[in-house]
Amino acid sequence: SAIPVITIDGPTASGKGTVACRVAAVLGWHVLDSGALYRLTALTCIKRGIGIHQVGQIADAAAYLDVVFKGDEILMHGQDVTAAIRQEAVGEFASRVAALEPVRAALLARQREFRQAPGLVADGRDMGTVVFPDAHLKVFLIASARARAERRYKQLIEKGFSANIDEISRDLEARDARDSQRLHAPLTPAQDALRLDSSALDVDQTVNQVLDWYKDRT
Ligand code: C5P
């Protein structure tokens, strides 16, 4: 496809979502928060009492997600679930359902539908490796474990959730280990990805680096 894509992959809380939104805003492009699709699948399962071993039902939940991305809001069956999907318990279950191949297969076409003119910035774990292998620019965004735990802590507090930094650290580590070690679409940089360590950078600096790399390629 001629429609340009920038992919931003990386571990949990590396700043992918914030950077993707900002880069998309500057370029006037669409944005795909692929993690939200896994979180929505997880939330659906939690609500319906579907357990991690009920693979067929989880895949169905993924295939039939009734979701609308409306600006900053995410609506499922018309209900605002923007805050609900950010809970740690949902992220934790999301990383379990994300290890299931039928779930990933069910979400693949839906993710590719986000590729619309004039362009797309997509963030997740496998955007550059599996979903958009022909992306024009692939970024692998990393940050130290400490920086990521602090960012996630601030995010949760700002959203009105209670949070404990040690618990978050342990949770991030467990989630990253699961995402990196799984068989299907593990978290790993694409061969042609550029690595960006945001530990010592603020959001503007990180966004500008991505934009500079993109300009270099056009
Ligand atoms: O990025 P976020 O924390 O919202 O993603 C939640 C979970 O969804 C991740 O821990 C990961 O297991 C899964 N995920 C994935 N592939 C993606 C995006 C997210 O497996 N492209």
Automatic annotation (TrEMBL):
<feature type="binding site">
    <location>
        <begin position="10"/>
        <end position="18"/>
    </location>
    <ligand>
        <name>ATP</name>
    </ligand>
</feature>
<dbReference type="Pfam" id="PF02224">
    <property type="entry name" value="Cytidylate_kin"/>
</dbReference>
<dbReference type="GO" id="GO:0006220">
    <property type="term" value="P:pyrimidine nucleotide metabolic process"/>
</dbReference>
<comment type="similarity">
    <text>Belongs to the cytidylate kinase family. Type 1 subfamily.</text>
</comment>
<dbReference type="InterPro" id="IPR027417">
    <property type="entry name" value="P-loop_NTPase"/>
</dbReference>
<dbReference type="InterPro" id="IPR011994">
    <property type="entry name" value="Cytidylate_kinase_dom"/>
</dbReference>
<keyword id="KW-0418">Kinase</keyword>
<keyword id="KW-0963">Cytoplasm</keyword>
<keyword id="KW-0808">Transferase</keyword>
<dbReference type="GO" id="GO:0036431">
    <property type="term" value="F:dCMP kinase activity"/>
</dbReference>
<dbReference type="GO" id="GO:0005524">
    <property type="term" value="F:ATP binding"/>
</dbReference>
<dbReference type="GO" id="GO:0015949">
    <property type="term" value="P:nucleobase-containing small molecule interconversion"/>
</dbReference>
<protein>
    <recommendedName>
        <fullName>Cytidylate kinase</fullName>
        <ecNumber>2.7.4.25</ecNumber>
    </recommendedName>
</protein>
<dbReference type="GO" id="GO:0005829">
    <property type="term" value="C:cytosol"/>
</dbReference>
<dbReference type="InterPro" id="IPR003136">
    <property type="entry name" value="Cytidylate_kin"/>
</dbReference>
<keyword id="KW-0067">ATP-binding</keyword>
<dbReference type="GO" id="GO:0036430">
    <property type="term" value="F:CMP kinase activity"/>
</dbReference>
<keyword id="KW-0547">Nucleotide-binding</keyword>
<feature type="domain" description="Cytidylate kinase">
    <location>
        <begin position="6"/>
        <end position="214"/>
    </location>
</feature>
